[in-house]
């Protein structure tokens, strides 16, 4: 499987672009090619999922976009500038695999962390905390401490925190990976609703094929050793997606194509 | 309440061993007194004598208990023979030294965590400082600080600091480095400055480590103050009582000063423990 993925044309709407992106980690066991020749364009308002087995570089790609990892070759732009400049301009909110709430702060207090750092006024902070908590349906929980919330609620609080400072881009690294199926379905539904109301551009890393198909406008299938893109699938599903859409032939067909892509990458 | 029975058992065993040792160690003096008086001692006479000598090699527990009672409850606290008077002097020096030690320890830890140069250059000296016997350098510190016209209590505090800053540095370095990679990355995504990361993440996250260090440091700090009082005995304190006791062979006085020092240390550690429990519970970090 060596045929290169044609790089997509850059449009005026491009929010994130990667061209010939390479990242090699030097380890004691020799170099590891986490990303090899990755070309990708993410447009404004896209919901892009990255799917693939462990070690395929999906998380690494997201971290490069967030300036948490430095590429060893190629170009990445975020909002037309380098990832570092974008990070300093607070262009994105990042949701990690774990909620990462500080135990000594209330839910509201946790959401205030980025707001305090970014220097919002007290009144503005209070206003924003209330607004994002409503967005993730946690408005009753502002004064509660993280340990008083379930895992799913904690993850919602962490999404609220990433939304609080109006970044247009939301980067999510397997945010629901540790949650059970039922909670996950529920959060997926809520995430779509949130995406619909806020119009954010979302980069979403996942292990789950149904999750990727259900959520995305674009699915990036990746494979490991070296980490590379094997397929980019434009979803034909409408933007309005009830959970039942997962039983439609269209959905099943896209899921099938994702599965094929994953299998090919393994061969 | 569940803990009380094992503790009482241990105390009972210690007291029993202590009595047995007192009999063994004090018996020669009991026999030698009897010999000079040309008497012979029965076993029970010998045992009762070993429990009631004026300057026993090892005073029996009840002798120490009586001495402590007489020098605390039955003396005015302004009396120079009151253990409370001396204990208070020691406690003041201990608390001052502990405060110095906490400040120095936290300051050094922050410098070590934020500046690699400090980490590489200062850490070996910090470790080396603890290999020097405090008993040997305490008198020198006293002489130097006296020449600089520093108050005696500050001199004692400095010696006490010398012992107590170490656990604070070690614990705080570990504590300030304790936030995991994800939390540090998170601060980076907010484009937080080093000082914002310190106040909002590193410092609060280090609190459990700080308390562990403080409990060790409090005891070390008291040892430092007592050692300092051996060199500055004119000002009194439990260390001075120890020294006076050993000059005049007053073993009962030595043991009661020792037990008072141990009690003082235990009280400090226990209050820190209570503060730790309350704080960590409030911070949602209770183990």
- The low-confidence parts of chain B are none
In CATH, what is the homologous superfamily of the largest domain in chain B? Answer: MetI-like
For the termini of chain A, the CA-CA separation is: 8 Å
How large, in whole angstroms, is the Cα Rg of chain A? 18 Å
User: Largest beta sheet of chain A, briefly?
Assistant: 6 strands, mixed
Oligomer: heterodimer
The CATH first-level class of the largest domain in chain B comes to Mainly Alpha
**Count of alpha/pi helices of chain A:** 8
CATH architecture label name of the largest domain in chain B: Orthogonal Bundle
Unreliable stretches of chain A: 1-10
Greatest contact between two chains: A-B, 25 and 20 residues
Percentage of helical residues of chain A? 25-40%
- The CATH topology of the largest domain in chain B is given as MetI-like fold
What is the general shape of chain B?
A: elongated
How many E strands of chain A? 9
Mean pLDDT of chain B: 91
